[in-house]
């Protein structure tokens, strides 16, 4: 069998300060572990010039390692993944945030765990073992905990972190899940795991530490909370 290849989908919106460091860390961690990878950057017309930074990085790391799939305007995360996966040449897909909340050092652990149990999905979790969250105020922690608790009680998904977005998928599994999921925003990540269980896919978990963004704006507000609550209820009613 040919060696595995890992395509990392990196959606960006105003991540000019974060992008060079995350790319440097990904290359260092994966190259030193002998992992074959490519990074697909999906920038949605960031007004801060993220795409120019991405072009510079492509010159440094090469067109085989850094693939640019920009879109004209901010079209949302769900469709960014769909757009990115179309260009992925790996047989495994890793989804992570570009804002340094997700540290690439966990990727080799995801890969090891996936191989151990031939899992369809590995989900990074803040809520078991050594996992945790750094840099959030009490309000944000309570919202996240509450959202997860509510979802676990209502949906019984068999995973401990439903709204996290640091995950590894077998490519064909991710394609099937995306096709089956209708949600947007935070509910999208949750629906992916809930449907995975529904379809009988094997989900493994790896504890991760999540660090709040240092650069750039957070977007969690009252709107997201309401959107989440209605999305959760809709999922509850349809699964
Ligand atoms: N391409 C694209 N990327 C996006 C969009 N919205 C967010 N992103 C990126 O998706 C990742 C996660 O978004 P974040 O804004 O960090 O979401 P969050 O972690 O829930 O919230 P904060 O970190 O507190 O702002 C980051 O890499 C963003 O740059 C979008 O509409 N299109
Ligand atoms: C990528 O990482 C490897 C291993 O650390 C290193 O040898 C190589 O120079 C890095 N590439 C770039 C462009 O920094
Ligand atoms: Mg973030």
TrEMBL record:
Its EC number is 2.4.1.83. It is found in: Endoplasmic reticulum. GO terms for molecular function: dolichyl-phosphate beta-D-mannosyltransferase activity; metal ion binding. GO terms for cellular component: endoplasmic reticulum membrane. It holds the Pfam family Glycos_transf_2. Transmembrane segments: none annotated. Its cofactor is Mg(2+); Ca(2+); Mn(2+). CDD domains: DPM1_like. The keyword Hydrolase does not apply. It is an enzyme of class 2 (transferase). Its main location: endoplasmic reticulum. PANTHER family: DOLICHOL-PHOSPHATE MANNOSYLTRANSFERASE SUBUNIT 1. This is Dolichol-phosphate mannosyltransferase subunit 1. It comes from Trichoplax adhaerens.
